[in-house]
């Protein structure tokens, strides 16, 4: 008669050597060679140990030469499917175990699945194996194994392709019982006859619901209805959840996706997700899934051909855990989670010393200095038709091609996504050609660099009518995925009003939520977000509060730039060569982390496209340039500047010489706007006029009766309360 070691080695060889192992103090031991003789010697030596080690085999097909316990990378696939069934905890009595094995095997054979060809008693539990007609890839085997484990209440992770099982004809050290073969039949099972269920990912498997307590299936429909009254949701959601359980055909959708009501497993799972997101306790959901009073959602679990009775509680709990994991992954938060998180954050809050300042303090992450910063929101604001969208597009081209535009220089080249809700794809491409022509950019350089979306709506944030909360949309989640997939380094939203729905634009609370949710996109990927927004009626250039809607919108942006057409007065004072409609003023209205840019000008240039269409593009234009050849004696605006100093700003008040303060009182701000100078140029002009003795500094009492510096003409009669400063 063959020894136990010989029989064990012969059994293992059926699955393909090398595949047996034992574990000693964390070390994985293998036979010296992948042969039956080496396996027999290994098992014989182990049997002579005192006590012998537990010996296992891997039912998957393994590559040669693996080290240690096999990993998924060592598995080529498998020609078997399997499930591991464990008895109740604490059951060690041999007679009780034998009775449990007999009853469990009878329940499994009573299901509508093909009978397993191979059944092994591990000395405690059961391993069932179905022989397959061919080797299947690892993911297909795991899907079958996971479905079998769900049906029969298999052990945790027993579906994994690298799982090891007790080797027959060896001793189980926990029970001192010999592992034996209870059934060994010929034939195989067609793959199509076995169920499949994709195992959850690692995040889903990590969801731990804790002890749900003793099951108490709801006795009747009245008890089922009563369970809904305590739900922390509105009545409409309660009724939808109730109807989904009592009559799925009347509520056969989930998240706008049709549900096959004939698929009892899908009905059960989708209802568990709805119940979870409605705030129902996990234990109550489990008891509903086990209640014969609600067959629409419980019939799948209670069918003896699908699940043996002892496996139903575990299967129901697993369904609840899967539903819980799905809900968490799709933005749901359990009742009280927000408050608990806030409390934890408050408790973790401490004090940080600002000093000493580290020597390697990082620089601000500007993509475009004073305009676009990683993790922050920049706004371009202006009236309709003033060129906001065109400016945003050309800024996008500037970053995607890394070229200079106007006064801006991107620090690096990045992929850019422009979400334009007002123009179709063809019109966006026409505008792109015009922008590239004016900027001197070959459009071919932008292939795979500049992107958009072909959608009629671009709603990213909305108010949920069910609970009134401001939430992100499915498109928001998809956008986050696309930003990562395409390595987007700048996102443009044009216009902002198309990115939200059911929010009150004049509500500071709503606008703050909107910008914070959009900023989250920027911070998750450490990229800037540029939003295009309309200004309110009567807004003036450089006024950060000129943007339409609640002030919280502007407050949440770190940089605000305004765009405004040239006025008739400006055009008459500057006298540029083209009509006033051709020029816009770009002004820095807000800059939290840098000095605001002064007034700058762009000229709208018409571009004729190859198809005969005409489209505009912006180019930089400078009036009143102050260079090395500047001469106060011949400057074209000399007399007008002297007249401004002489007349003051009205009501006997002279122009302030301070570079800060209200713009309406400062001479540098006035000549900057009037003569199209930036802040540095305006300061330089005034300094040169002063050095030439054409203007001087004086003092004048203000409305607060305090003396302040003002600009005056030397040797002129000064208003009362004014004195020329003698230096």
UniProtKB/TrEMBL annotation:
Pfam families (alphabetical) = AAA_25 (PF13481)
Q: Which SUPFAM superfamilies has this protein been placed in?
A: P-loop containing nucleoside triphosphate hydrolases (SSF52540)
Q: Which domain of life is it from?
A: Bacteria
What InterPro entries does the database record attribute to this sequence?
A: P-loop_NTPase
Q: What is this protein called?
A: AAA family ATPase
Organism (species): Alteraurantiacibacter lauratis
Q: Which lineage is the organism of this entry classified under, starting from the top rank?
A: Bacteria, Pseudomonadati, Pseudomonadota, Alphaproteobacteria, Sphingomonadales
